[in-house]
Amino acid sequence: QVAIVGQATLALIQRPGADPWFCGGRPHQMAEAAGLGGVSSNPNVARIAIEQQKKKTDVVEPQVISEELLIAGVEEPVHLDGEPWEPIDFPTVTSLRLSFQNIIEVANLNKFDSLTTLRLDNNIIDKIANLSHLKQLTWLDLSFNNIREMEGLDHMTKLLDLSLYHNQIEEIKGLDGCPNLNILSLGHNNIKDLGQINYLRKFQNLRCVCLDGNKVCQTDSYNQHVLAYLPTLKYLDYMLIDEKAVQQAREGYQLDELGEVREREQAEEAAEKAKRDKKAVLEKLKGSFLDCTEDLFEELFSAENEPEHMSALSCYQGHKDFYRETLSENIKELRTWMEERNESRLKKAGAFEKAIVKAESESEEEAFQMIREFRSHKKKILAQIDREDSAPLKPEMEEMIQQLLDQLGRLENQLMANEIQLQECIAEALEDFEAKITEIVKQMQDRGTDFFRQLEDLEKIFYQNLVEGANSELENFAQNQDFATADTDTNKARFLSNKDEMVQACINFNEAHNRIIGDKDELMAFQMKDWRDKFFAGHRERQYDRNRQRVMDVKKVIDDCRAEILAASEVGDEYEEGDP
Q1: 221-237: b (≥16 Cβ within 10 Å) or e
Q2: Are 481 and 497 contacting, i.e. CB atoms less than 8 angstroms apart?
Q3: Could you tell me if 576 and 383 are in contact, meaning their C-beta atoms sit under 8 angstroms apart?
Q4: Do the beta carbons of residue 162 and residue 140 sit within 8 Å?
Q5: Choice among 48-52, 114-118, 299-303, 471-475 with the minimum mean pLDDT
Q6: Judging by beta carbons within 10 Å of its beta carbon (0-12, 13-18, 19+), is residue 315 exposed, middle or buried?
Q7: H or E, element range at 106
Q8: What does DSSP assign to residue 196?
Q9: Alpha helix (H) ranges present in 253-394?
Q10: What is the CA radius of gyration of the chain?
C-alpha cells in the first residue's frame, strides 16, 4: 500500500539547490538508514558523517553568530569573483548557511530582510527565537540541535519547508504563524502521543511529513491514524502514500472520533467565517460613522449591565422585547438616512481630490513646457558662441549671454508666480470645500443626535414601565407572601422580598443604559469631526510639502541652467551640449 520514493518521485519534492529528502539535516544518511540503499553521489556525505561523529566526542565550544560566521555563510547572491561578501549587504542576502558552527543561540539576523533559505542545522541551539522578522523565509533547517519547544515561528506566512529533525521536541505546536507549510520534518524527537498529529490537520498545504524515529511511530495504528487525520499528505516517513490506503483509513479508522473532529472543525470554520463577516460589516458601518449602532441592543442588555433581579419580574421580558423592536426600527431608519448622506460625502470628496490632482498636473505640465522651450532656446544660443581658446568673448556674444541670463531670471519668476497662483487657488478651493463638507457633517451629526435623543426617550419609557411593573409585582408578592413563597423559586422569592434592593437594581440598570447612550453619542460625533479634521489637515500638509518640493525643483533647474550658461561663457572651443 506504500511505495518507496524513486528518482522520479524525488524530483517532485526536490527544491532548487536543496537536498532531495525533505526531512532536513542529513537527508542522505536518513535515506540509507531507512533501507533505501544505493551509494550517494553527494561528496559531502562522508565529510558530514565524520564531522557528526567528531561532534559527539569533541569538547563543544559554544559560539554566537558573529559577523565572520555571517560572511562565510552567505550562499546567495554569489559574489562575481567567488570571494565572500565583505562587508555584507544584509538586505540582499537570500540564502545563509550556518551549519556545524556550535551556535548556541539564534541572534544577529535582524537585517536579513530578503532571506528565503536559512540553515542552522548541527548546532547546539536549544530555543527557537529571533526569527519572526524573517517574513520572506521559505526554507528553515534547525535539525540536529537541542530544541525542546516549537515556538518563535510567528508571522512566517511564506515558510514552506521546516526541519526540526533530531531535536528533543515532545509536543507538536507553535506553527499557526506558518499557514502555508508544505514540508515538515520532526523525525527523531520525543513525540509519543498519536493525538499530537491531529494538530497538523489545519495545514491544508501540508504534503510531506517525517515523524520517523519517534515513539509514536511504534504505535500499531500509527499509519492509519496519520492517513485518516491528514488526508492531504503525499509522503510519510520517506514513503509515497497510496491513495487507496488513505481511503481505507478514512472509511475504517476511528469513525466516531474523526466525525467529531470534523464537526468541531466545521463549527470552528463557521465561527471564523462569522467573525470575518462581522468584521467586514463593522468596517463598512465605520465608513458611515455607524459602527457604534451595531449590536447596540446586545450591549445595553449584556450580562454585565442587566441585573439578575430582572429575572424575577414577569413584566420584564415584554418591556425588553418592546425596547428591542423599537431600537431596531430606529437604527434601520438612521442607517438608511446616514448611508445616503455618506455616499454623497464620499462622492464629493473623491471629485474634489481628482480636481486637485488635475490642477496640479496641468500646472506642472505648463512649467515643464516653459522649461523645455527655454532649454531649447539656450541650446541654440550657446551653440552660436565661438571663440579662440584664450580669446575673450566678442561683445555681441557677451550680450547674447546676458540676454540668456535675463530670460532665465524671467523664467524663474514666472515659474514661482505660477506655483504661488496654484497654491492660492487650491487654498481657496480647500476653504470652499471645507465649508460644504462641514455642512454635510453637521447634518449627519444632527441626525445622529436626534437618534440618541430618541433612544434616551425610549430608555425613559422602559425605565418608567419597569419601575411601575416592579412595584406592582413587589406589592402583590408582599400581600400574598405565604402563598407566593411556596409557589415561587428561591431566587425569585429572594428578589421580590427585598423592595429596596429591586428598586436600586432598576436605578443602576437605567444609569448603565444612559452611560452607554451618552458614550455612543459622543463617539459618533467625534468620528465625524475627526474625519473632517484629518481630511483637510492632510490635504493642507500635502500641499505644504508639495509646494516646498516644487520650489526646490524650480531652484535646481534654474541653478543648473545658470551654471551651464556661465560655463559656456568661460570655456573655449565651440559649445556643444546634449539634449537636456
Answers
A1: ebbbbbbbbbeebbbbb
A2: yes
A3: yes
A4: yes
A5: 48-52
A6: middle
A7: none
A8: G
A9: 255-287, 296-300, 316-384
A10: 38
pLDDT digits (tens, 9 = 90+) for 88-99: 778 889 999 999
And the C-alpha cell for 577? Answer: 551640449
Q: Tell me how far apart the alpha carbons of residues 301 and 470 are, in angstroms, rounded to a whole number.
A: 18
Query: What's the rounded Cα separation, in Å, for the pair 94 and 74?
Result: 8
Asked if residues 502 and 309 have their Cβ atoms less than 8 Å apart, the reply is yes
Task: Categorize the per-residue pLDDT at 383 as very low, low, confident or very high, splitting at 50, 70 and 90.
Answer: confident
* Contact between 5 and 31 (Cβ < 8 Å): no
Instruction: Say whether 100 sits in a helix, a strand or coil.
Output: coil
Q: Which residues pair with 210 in a beta bridge?
A: 185
The distance of Cα 389 from the centroid of its chain, to the nearest Å, equals 66
CB-based contacts of 473, cutoff 8 Å, min separation 6: 312, 313, 314, 315, 496
Contacts of 457 (CB under 8 A, 6+ apart): none
Give yes or no for a contact between 4 and 244, defined as CB atoms under 8 angstroms apart: no
CB 492 within 8 A of CB 470: no
Task: Give the containing element (helix H, strand E) for 489.
Answer: none
User: How many Å apart are CA 442 and CA 37, to the nearest integer?
Assistant: 81
**pLDDT band of 54, cuts 50, 70, 90:** low
CA-to-CA dists, residue 402 to 241, 562, 565, angstroms: 87, 11, 9
Please give the angle made by the CA atoms of 133, 135 and 136, to the nearest 5 degrees.
Answer: 135
Q: In whole angstroms, what is the distance from residue 463 CA to residue 515 CA?
A: 14
CA-based nearest residue to 385, from 373, 370, 402: 402
Bond prior to 87 in cis (omega within 30° of 0): yes
- Distance between CA 401 and CA 416 in Å, rounded? 23
Q: Tell me the β-bridge partners of 139.
A: 117, 161
CA 501 to chain CA centroid, nearest Å: 50
**Which pLDDT score, from 0 to 100, does residue 60 have?**
61
Q: Which residues contact 485 (CB under 8 A, 6 or more apart)?
A: 493, 497
Beta strands of 114-181 (E only): which ranges? 117-119, 139-141, 161-163
H helices of 201-315, where? 222-229, 243-252, 255-287, 296-300
Query: Between these two residues, 436 and 7, which has the higher pLDDT value?
Result: 436
pLDDT at position 335 over 50: yes
Q: Are 441 and 434 in contact (CB under 8 A)?
A: no
CB 160 within 8 A of CB 180: yes
pTM of full prediction above 0.70: no
The position carrying cell 527544491 is 15
Residue 454 sits at φ, ψ, to 5 deg, of -60, -40
